[in-house]
Records
---
Amino acid sequence: MKIALIGYGKMGKTIEEVALQRGHSVELKIDIDSLGEFTKENLQACDVAIEFTGPHSAKSNILNCLAAGVPVVSGSTGWLHEWNEVENTCKVTNGSFLYASNFSVGVNIFFELNKKLANLMSTRKDYEVSIEETHHTQKKDAPSGTAITLAEQLLQDIPGKKNWVNQHSHNSEELTITSKRIDPAPGTHVVKYSSAIDDIEIIHTAHNRQGFALGAVLAAEYIHNKKGIFSMKEILSL
């Protein structure tokens, strides 16, 4: 495939490395210094776009790809309050779009473990659940998109929890997410159930960016020549 990389920072460069290893080519690389090349014509010379930027530019980047008729994979977080516009545009243009808060195969298995454990703990009122996430200091949003996904899963199963907050809370209806920014951590997420008797934890720790990059390239391979809105569940058959 011919790939367009929208966002060519550390993650973009790692995605390029993985894409080349898998026999693809990167035809377009867009960063702050090459925005003039982010044109419809250049996009249409590519088979698929992979978008990893920030919360303020993600939506417009995705819409530009859909307008050009190019399938787009996005891993940007912090923009999901604008999801409906992207979803509607994808449907109107008969486009192809795949979003994941985290493309790591291990993290997506972790999501499934989180749902299973939440179901098992749903009747255990003596346990208090919380989330902690740790990332490098260059991460632009807090809490992480992965932590938000974990929290939304918990809210569906844990009775009495109404919403999550990105601070320690003594309100029993609020789910605490604690965010830490420490270099050079690529990402650790902990879901913890605490009681007076014991603690139960599930933890995912990323060692590098390779897992995220591989998942993004697998996603691009999956949506190439497909129409619709997809997630990592389809790719991993979860």
---
Amino acid sequence: MMLESLREEVLEANLELVRRGLVVDTFGNASGISREHGLVAIKPSGVPYTELRPSDLVVTDLDGRIVEGALRPSSDLPTHIALYRAFPGIGGVAHTHSRNATAWAQACKEIPCLGTTHADYFRGPVPVTEAMTAEEIENEYEWNTGQAIVRRFATMDPMQMRAVLVAGHAPFCWGATPAEAAHLAWMLEEVAQMAFAALTINPGAAALPEALRDKHFLRKHGPAAYYGQKNTKTKA
């Protein structure tokens, strides 16, 4: 079985989406890429999460051609591929229809950065794409969904804003690994709910000051990050 380790990582990321309550039925998917091999592993289309095994994951190249696997890949594969092609620093993508983040996407509204919890993961408001045209929807819809995301990030750093809301659709998140992408999908749902609650309590709530926003993001993700522990093995 090709890319066994990557398959296991991608399976675990998909199951994490379920454990966190981010998917309903078979909606949603996670994938991972081996940059060394130029291959993507992704959840098969429409298969219940409870039945998934590493061998069920489909491996494709960056043109979407199946390299290994007996099942059809997720219908969102072209969107994932578009992101892998455009954002060379990412190693995993997670797509959900989680309730609160999807509500913001359906409202075609960005999620404002109102507090430090948001800033710990997303450096500013989570953007929303422009609505797709009828032609884009009718022809290569999933690929064009990816292109809508890529266009939205033409002037943004995808490693400092690792999430997007597709207008009228749902969120996509990405990270260095499939596990990180799944974790960010969970955090996105949390901040989406917090923003809705905060604006319900105070419709005039202001965005977090830029200095405080950047402090919280950079202390976890900047070049001089100091939050948490160094990635070293603990000696007995």
---
Amino acid sequence: MAAPVWILTGPSGAGKATALAAFAAAGAEYVDNLPVDLLEGFVVLPRESAAVAVIDARQDGALQRVRTAAGARVLYLDARDDVLLRRLNDRVRPHLAALGRGLSAVNAERELLAPLRAAADVVIDTSDLPVEQLEARVRSLLHSDGASRRLTCTVSSFGFKYGPQLEADWVVDTRLMANPFWDAELRPLTGLDEPVRAFVLDQPEAKHLLQQLTDLLGWAAERAAARDRLHLHLALGCTGGRHRSVVLAEELAKRLRDKELDVDVRHRDLARPDPR
């Protein structure tokens, strides 16, 4: 099996330096700011260990020539605009000077990176991700890519009130069903507690949605595997990310595992403070 090759990209301040260091610490060969025109040659080089190349907005207009080479996978790091702006204030990035200042520079950089974002195999939102967790996610990618060619489905929950789920390939709104938050006894609990689970799963809408998503993801997994894609992320959102979306993410993951799919479950906003 050929050693995996990753393209690491994303806007300034999203954590590429941290991720690149994690790749290197895990034994991967790496090149920072690889010229776009050298990408295909980099991918086909004979190698025994994983490799990663950083391609980002430092190459400006050359990004329009990016054509992800066969065999390379794209890891796109992202973060909320307010987080990027705060991180950008901490250091000078000369390549951003031509893009403007503040939010206009962030938006311009996102536009430059649009071709790579569209091609991303994995997106990681680093907005609230501690450094050690980002490093662990990078190590996990290297391990899974090198050890198996099976598709991994990530099913996550999140709260719309805390912003979009930047990592997701697909987003499903679960606010169409009754909210346990309005039950005083259920409000302090989460979707990992049995009373909340029962409240959500007893609703006909939940049963219908879960069946539809199970069928759809089963079909999508077959198509993704046929195209040699190894990662697919579906995010379920509710208002606060503590009740409905958590229950449905856990149940959907169970059903997908019953179909012998590899499934990773994450709850982005579950640990936020009790709304009381």
---
Amino acid sequence: MTRYRCIQIRFIRRGANSPSSDDILKITKMGENTVRIFYTEKNEYDAFIDFMTINYTQLIAYIYRVIQLLTLDDDPFQSVQFFVPGYPTFLIGADKVKNHTGYILEMISSTLMNWPLIGFEQGPDTRTSTHELLPVGGPQETTDATNNGNGTEST
């Protein structure tokens, strides 16, 4: 069975003492062009969980609306942290998220189109490939006919 890591977006409240007070948006791949969204809203006493199953286009529209709503809030979150498979985790101030909407939506769209499988770290003795990585533009990487390493053909 194929397994995928979920996308998680954490909305961090101002003055919060613990990650347990963060609102969390979790996006799980269900199938081709189908995801399930779980939004967990926390308050001082309770947590409310809403979920829906939608397609990729609906997800992008939903994320766009969430980002827009962050800028309308009179008591805004302090920051937003993104955990997207295949990308580094990053934290951004809630007041800056709207300025980077395009980058965020492009990153999520990219993940939807090529969602990484769950993998495991492997030590140096368990390489998955026997191909050696070559630096781009290095003397080993050349397209010249005589392999003189300078990118030109010699006669």
